[in-house]
Amino acid sequence: MLIPTLTVRDMREAIAFHTEVLDFKIAARLPEADPFYLVLIGGPDELHLSLRSGGIPQGPATAILVCSDIDALLATYRARGLAIPTRPDSPVHAEPIDQSWGTREFYIDDPSGNTLILQQR
User: Fold this and answer.
1) In sequence order, which residues have a C-beta less than 8 Å from that of residue 77 and are 6 or more positions away?
2) What is the pLDDT of residue 108?
3) How many helices (H) and strands (E) does the chain have?
4) How far apart are the first and last CA of the chain?
5) Considering only 5-9, 36-40, 84-88, 115-119, which range has the smallest mean pLDDT?
6) Which 8-state DSSP code applies to residue 12?
C-alpha cells in the first residue's frame, strides 16, 4: 500500500475542500483540537494532509485517484461547489479528456496548489 501525503498551507481550508467538495472523511486528526496532520479515507483510499510549517517552502504534489465513472464523480464535485476550471490554459483542468495512453482524466487543484488527477482506466 502506498499512501500519498499532501502538504497544505491552511488545514481548515484543506479540510473543507477535501471533505465538503471531494468525498473524503476524516479518520484521524493529530492533535484533535488543532491538527497539523490529518488522515482522510475515501472508500478504499487513504490520503494524508500535513500542514506546511517552519517557513520552509514546499512545492505542490500530485496524487492520482483511480475511479470507475469520472464524469459522474466530477458532476458530484461540481454540485458541491468545485470551481472549474482552475487553470484556464490547461484543457485537462476544464473537462475530462480521453488521453492517448488509454485513460480518461480530469485534474483538480486543491486550495494549496496540489493536483489530484481523477483517472478512469
Assistant:
1) 21, 22, 108
2) 93
3) 2, 8
4) 19
5) 84-88
6) H
pTM of the model: 0.84
Contact indicator for 25, 39 with CB cutoff of 8 Å: no
What integer pLDDT is reported at residue 84 of this predicted model? Answer: 83
With a CB cutoff of 8 Å and minimum separation 6, the contacts of 98 are: 104
Q: Which three cell numbers stand for residue 80?
A: 458541491
Measured CA to CA, the distance from residue 77 to residue 24 in angstroms comes to 12
- What is the spatial distance between Cα 118 and Cα 26, in angstroms, rounded to a whole number? 20
What element of type H or E holds 76?
helix 70-79
* Helix or strand holding residue 48 (H, E): strand 45-51
